[in-house]
């Protein structure tokens, strides 16, 4: 049932089975632990992350004690716990557990075993979340190649890897290839799974994100509205995937100039994410950052600055100084400082952000180019046209490509 996306039905069946097995077999019997593991996966899929964490930790502890650390079932519990930690925004710990589980599975099961490949896929997700896009791409491409060979092109695990690789390519600024992969995965998932399956909806959402980046905002809006309606029906208003769709639709509405509605949706999503995840969760910080951009556009510079400064401090603490999301917040704050005519501080922030982006993402990444353009405008506004011209010449010599002048939301 869980594999078909029918999570509420699966939960009722799994809770009943777990209760019966506990009564008949005891809490530590392997079959009881299998039921506890299945239920934890379903609870995670339903977005109840704190409860999923508790259940996975308990099952992992029992399986390690009963079966040993390297038993395939113990490794399955460790993998599930790592996935929940990732969803909770604890990326460093998810990575640590993912690396340990991958090493054990490769040793016990072999590199091409489907569960080893699942661990490699999950580790790629942690690398992506930590901003290590190049390493994530390498991991995801290698995993995808093995899954295609072992499982075939249409296997759900293979499609999940294609979807994830598309997200990494998007983060690296390779929008056209990300679009191609998303469109192919969406077509396959619709055929293999169904239109309302959670994985299919993830593909629609991913395609909408890429279309927005490519400037095709009307189509991105249509996809986001359809996905949001389906996710609300399948999961409810407060599920993490539903909130992701609301956030994505609000970003597109902003791009289409419907800023009052975008603001309303962003404020509502932020309130829900704070309640569901807490103030420091990466998804919550995405909402704060995105809201600040809309407030800036509406001319509310003081409030935009307050939000920018708050999210920058939190991202530095949670994600680190060099994480691309942290750099995005620094860029956003600098733009607001320019609007407030605090050019000296804006210039310092822009120069530092550009240097970090060139080192981490490269000169040709769209974000690096956007920061460079903002710095040129700030230098000109600060009465430093010669320095601005020098930067423009350096940029042209570097062969950086032109991008639309907008901030990432």
Give an account of the 3D structure:
The chain is an all-alpha fold and 409 residues long. The chain is built from 19 helices and no strands. It has helices at 7-25, 30-45, 49-67, 72-87, 91-109, 114-129, 133-150, 156-171, 175-192, 198-213, 217-235, 240-255, 259-277, 282-297, 301-318, 324-339, 343-360, 366-381, 385-397. It starts with 6 loop residues before the first helix and ends in a 12-residue tail after the last helix.
A few lines on this structure:
This protein has 409 residues and is mainly α. 79% of the residues lie in helices and 0% in strands.
List keywords for this structure.
79% helix, 0% strand, mainly alpha, 19 helices
Biggest beta-sheet profile = none
Please give the share of residues in helix: over 70%
Low-pLDDT windows of residues:
400-405
Q: Rough shape?
A: globular
Say how many strands there are.
0
H/E series = HHHHHHHHHHHHHHHHHHH
Number of helices: 19
Topology, element by element:
Elements: H1 7-25, H2 30-45, H3 49-67, H4 72-87, H5 91-109, H6 114-129, H7 133-150, H8 156-171, H9 175-192, H10 198-213, H11 217-235, H12 240-255, H13 259-277, H14 282-297, H15 301-318, H16 324-339, H17 343-360, H18 366-381, H19 385-397
Helix pairs in contact: 1-2, 2-3, 2-4, 3-4, 4-5, 4-6, 5-6, 6-7, 6-8, 7-8, 8-9, 8-10, 9-10, 10-11, 10-12, 11-12, 12-13, 12-14, 13-14, 14-15, 14-16, 15-16, 16-17, 16-18, 17-18, 18-19
């Amino acid at each position: 049932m869980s594999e078909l996306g029918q999570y509420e039905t699966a939960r009722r069946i799994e809770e009943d089975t777990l209760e019966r097995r506990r009564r008949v077999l005891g809490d530590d019997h392997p079959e009881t632990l299998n039921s506890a593991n299945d239920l934890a996966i379903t609870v995670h899929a339903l977005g109840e992350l704190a409860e999923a964490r508790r259940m996975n930790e308990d099952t992992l502890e029992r399986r390690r004690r009963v079966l040993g650390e390297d038993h395939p079932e113990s490794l399955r519990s460790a993998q599930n716990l790592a996935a929940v930690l990732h969803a909770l925004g604890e990326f460093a710990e998810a990575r640590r557990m993912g690396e340990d589980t991958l090493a054990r599975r490769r040793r016990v099961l072999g590199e091409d075993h489907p569960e080893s490949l699942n661990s490699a896929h999950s580790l790629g997700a942690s690398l992506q979340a930590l901003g290590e896009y190049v390493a994530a791409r390498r991991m995801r491409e290698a995993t995808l190649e093995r899954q295609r060979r072992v499982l075939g092109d249409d296997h759900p695990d293979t499609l999940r890897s294609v979807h994830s690789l598309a997200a990494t390519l998007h983060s690296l600024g390779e929008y056209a290839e990300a679009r191609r992969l998303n469109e192919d995965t969406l077509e396959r998932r619709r055929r293999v799974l169904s239109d309302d399956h959670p994985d299919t909806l993830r593909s629609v959402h991913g395609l909408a994100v890429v279309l927005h980046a490519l400037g095709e905002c009307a189509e991105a809006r249509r996809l986001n509205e359809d996905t949001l309606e389906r996710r609300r029906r399948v999961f409810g208003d407060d599920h993490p995937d539903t909130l992701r769709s609301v956030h994505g639709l609000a970003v597109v509405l902003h791009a289409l100039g419907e800023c009052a509605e975008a603001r309303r949706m962003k404020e509502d999503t932020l309130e829900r994410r704070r309640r569901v995840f807490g103030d420091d969760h990466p998804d919550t910080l995405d909402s704060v950052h995105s809201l600040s951009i809309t407030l800036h556009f509406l001319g509310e510079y003081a409030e935009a600055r307050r939000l920018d400064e708050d999210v920058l401090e939190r991202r530095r603490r949670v994600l680190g100084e060099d994480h691309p999301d942290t750099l995005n917040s620094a860029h956003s704050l600098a733009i607001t400082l320019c609007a407030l005519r605090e050019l000296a501080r804006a210039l310092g922030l822009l120069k530092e952000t550009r240097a970090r982006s060139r080192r981490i993402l490269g000169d040709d990444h769209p974000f690096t180019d956007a920061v460079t353009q903002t710095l040129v405008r700030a230098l000109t506004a600060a009465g430093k046209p010669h320095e601005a011209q020098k930067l423009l010449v350096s940029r042209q010599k570097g062969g950086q490509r032109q991008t639309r002048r907008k901030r990432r939301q």
